[in-house]
C-alpha cells in the first residue's frame, strides 16, 4: 500500500545571463548529465527531474510556483553551477512550500591543472556561487538540507538518498488521514495534544470514530473472505494447536480474522493510512485488535495504541521513508528494564501490537492468551523476537508551544534467555550511550512511553525531518551527557520562545 512510483524531485540549476549563450548551454548540458547520473544510481530511490536553468527572478519564481502546485513534485534540489545573484531568489524562496536540498557540488571533480583558464573558471563557479545562495537562505531563515561533495561520490548520493526518503515521508503526511477509533486512554497525558496545531504543522488530519463504525464492516464479512484469510494465517504463521481447525481456541482466531477484514475495509473506504484504538472503548468488538493491527502495520499502516495519534502518524511516515529497505518499522513501548552490573537493557513490547516487519528470521507464532485488561475475550496475536542490530526510537511530543522530536539511538540484542511465558512480541535493546544517561535524558526531554522503532533509519533522517517540519529535535546518542543535554533543553526553550512566530 506504499506507492512512490509517481513521486519526483526537481533539479534546478541557477545561473545568470552575464556569461553568454555558450556558457549557459554548457551549464544545461552538465546539469542534465548530473540528473542522468542520479537516475541511474542504485542509491537514489526517487526520480530526479531536470528543469531548465533559471537565470532571472521571474524564472526562479515560476519554477517555485510550478513545484508548489505539482502533485508529483515532493521537493527541489538546487545547485549554482555559476554565480547566481541571490537577490533574484528572494521571491521564489519566499513562496516555495516544498522541501529544499542545496547541493554544493561542481561538475568536474578535479582541477585540470594544465588547461585551466578563465573560461573554465567562469563556467565552474559553484565554490562561491553556492555560498551566495546559501547566504540568502540563511538570511531568510530558510531550513534546508546542505550536501557537499562531488555528485558522483557514493557518500553524496547516500546523503541525497536519505533526504529523498525523508521528503517522501513528509509528502505522505501532507494528505494523511488518521482515524482515532475511540478516545485517548483515560487520564494519560502524553498521548493527548493539539490536533489542529498538528495539522497546521505537519499536514495530517486526525478525526474520531467509534468502535461501532468498525463493527458495521465486521458484520458484513462473508464466509468466503473469512476462509481465505484463515488460510493465509495458516500459511504465514506457526499456529498453536488450539488455533488450528478443531482446536478449542479456533473461534478466537476466527474473530480476529473478522476484525482484520472489517477494520481493513473501514480504513480503505475512509482513505485512512493510520489509525489508533484503545482497550477502554471496544464496544461490540469481541477482542482487542492484536493480530489485525500487527498485519495492517506490516502492510504499511501507521498505528498508535491508546489513542496515540502522533505516534500513529509517525509510524506511517517512517514506513514510507523505509520503503525498499531491509528491516522494518513498528509501534513500540518501553516496557520493563533489565538491570545488571554487566549492563542494563530495555525490553520493548506492548500488549499486542508490535509489527512483524521487525521480526527475526523465524516465522512468528500465532497464539491466544488472556489480556487481563479491556474486559473482552482472549485476543489473538503474533509472538516473536526481533532482529538484532542498530535502530532508533522516535517520539513526537506536544510541548504546548511547539512540537519536539526525541530520538534515541539503540542497539537491539538477543535476550539472554528464552521467554517461554511472555505471550507478546518483544525486542531487547541497549540504549546509547547507556541506559542511565539515555533514560535520564529521555525523561528530561519529556519523551513519550510510546515510540516508533525503526531498524534502518538513523538520526540523520530525523534531523532532516525536523528541519523540514520546523520542529525541535533532541538526539540521545553515544556522545550524550546529561549536563550538555540539560543545557541544550534550556537553550532551546529560549530559542523557541524568541522565534515562536517562525515555528
From TrEMBL:
For this entry, the protein name equals Uncharacterized protein
Checking Pfam families in the record gives: AraA_central, AraA_N, Arabinose_Iso_C
Q: Where is the signal peptide?
A: none
UniProt keyword annotation of tRNA processing present:
no
Can you supply one Gene Ontology CC term for this chain's record? cytosol
What are the residue boundaries of the L-arabinose isomerase N-terminal domain, all occurrences included? 8-173
Q: Which InterPro entries match?
A: Ara_Isoase_C, AraA_central, AraA_N, AraA_N_sf, Fuc/Ara_isomerase_C, Fucose_isomerase_N/cen_sf, Lara_isomerase
One record GO biological process:
L-arabinose catabolic process to D-xylulose 5-phosphate
| Record domain L-arabinose isomerase central: where | 177-324
Q: Which GO terms describe its molecular function?
A: L-arabinose isomerase activity; metal ion binding
Amino acid at each position: 500500500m506504499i506507492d512512490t512510483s509517481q513521486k519526483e524531485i526537481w533539479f534546478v540549476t541557477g545561473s545568470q545571463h552575464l556569461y553568454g549563450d555558450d556558457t549557459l548551454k554548457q551549464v544545461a548540458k552538465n546539469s542534465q548529465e548530473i540528473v542522468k547520473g542520479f537516475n541511474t544510481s542504485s542509491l537514489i530511490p526517487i526520480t530526479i527531474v531536470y528543469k531548465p536553468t533559471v537565470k532571472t527572478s521571474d524564472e526562479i519564481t515560476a519554477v517555485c510556483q510550478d513545484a508548489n502546485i505539482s502533485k508529483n513534485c515532493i521537493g527541489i534540489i538546487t545547485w549554482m553551477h555559476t554565480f547566481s545573484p541571490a537577490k533574484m531568489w528572494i521571491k521564489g524562496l519566499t513562496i516555495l512550500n516544498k522541501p529544499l536540498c542545496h547541493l554544493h557540488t561542481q561538475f568536474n571533480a578535479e582541477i585540470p591543472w594544465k588547461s585551466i583558464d578563465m573560461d573554465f573558471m567562469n563556467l565552474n563557479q559553484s565554490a562561491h556561487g553556492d555560498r551566495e545562495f546559501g547566504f540568502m537562505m540563511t538570511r531568510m531563515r530558510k531550513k534546508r538540507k546542505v550536501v557537499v561533495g562531488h555528485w558522483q561520490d557514493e557518500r553524496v548520493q547516500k546523503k541525497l538518498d536519505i533526504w529523498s526518503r525523508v521528503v517522501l515521508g513528509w509528502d505522505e503526511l501532507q494528505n494523511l488521514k488518521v482515524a482515532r477509533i475511540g478516545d485517548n486512554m483515560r487520564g494519560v497525558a502524553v498521548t493527548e495534544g493539539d490536533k489542529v496545531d498538528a495539522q497546521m504543522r505537519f499536514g495530517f488530519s486526525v478525526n474520531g470514530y467509534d468502535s461501532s463504525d468498525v463493527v458495521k464492516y465486521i458484520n458484513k464479512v462473508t464466509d468466503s473472505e473469512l476462509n481465505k484469510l484463515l488460510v493465509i494465517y495458516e500459511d504465514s504463521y506457526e499456529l498453536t494447536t488450539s488455533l488450528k481447525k478443531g482446536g478449542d481456541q479456533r473461534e478466537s482466531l476466527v474473530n480476529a480474522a473478522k476484525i482484520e477484514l472489517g477494520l481493513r475495509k473501514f480504513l480503505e473506504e475512509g482513505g485512512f493510512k493510520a489509525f489508533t484504538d484503545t482497550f477502554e472503548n471496544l464496544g461490540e468488538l469481541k477482542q482487542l485488535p492484536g493480530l489485525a493491527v500487527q498485519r495492517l502495520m506490516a502492510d504499511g499502516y501507521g498505528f498508535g495504541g491508546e489513542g496515540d495519534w502522533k505516534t500513529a502518524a509517525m509510524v506511517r511516515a517512517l514506513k514510507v521513508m523505509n520503503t525498499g529497505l531491509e528491516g522494518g518499522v513498528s509501534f513500540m513501548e518501553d516496557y520493563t528494564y533489565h538491570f545488571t552490573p554487566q549492563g542494563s537493557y530495555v525490553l520493548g513490547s506492548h500488549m499486542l501490537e508490535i509489527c512483524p516487519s521487525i521480526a527475526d528470521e523465524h516465522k512468528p507464532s500465532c497464539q491466544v492468551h488472556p489480556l487481563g485488561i479491556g474486559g473482552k475475550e482472549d485476543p489473538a496475536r503474533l509472538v516473536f523476537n526481533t532482529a538484532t542490530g542498530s535502530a532508533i526510537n522516535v517520539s513526537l511530543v506536544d510541548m504546548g508551544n511547539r512540537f519536539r522530536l526525541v530520538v534515541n539511538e539503540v542497539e537491539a540484542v538477543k535476550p539472554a534467555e528464552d521467554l517461554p511465558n511472555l505471550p507478546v512480541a518483544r525486542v531487547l535493546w541497549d540504549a546509547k550511550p547507556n541506559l542511565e544517561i539515555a533514560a535520564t535524558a529521555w525523561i528530561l526531554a519529556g519523551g513519550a512511553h510510546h515510540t516508533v522503532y525503526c531498524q534502518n533509519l538513523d538520526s540523520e533522517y530525523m534531523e532532516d525531518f525536523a528541519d523540514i517540519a520546523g520542529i525541535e529535535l533532541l538526539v540521545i546518542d553515544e556522545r550524550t551527557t546529561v549536563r550538555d543535554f540539560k543545557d541544550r533543553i534550556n537553550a532551546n526553550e529560549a530559542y523557541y520562545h524568541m522565534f515562536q512566530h517562525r515555528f
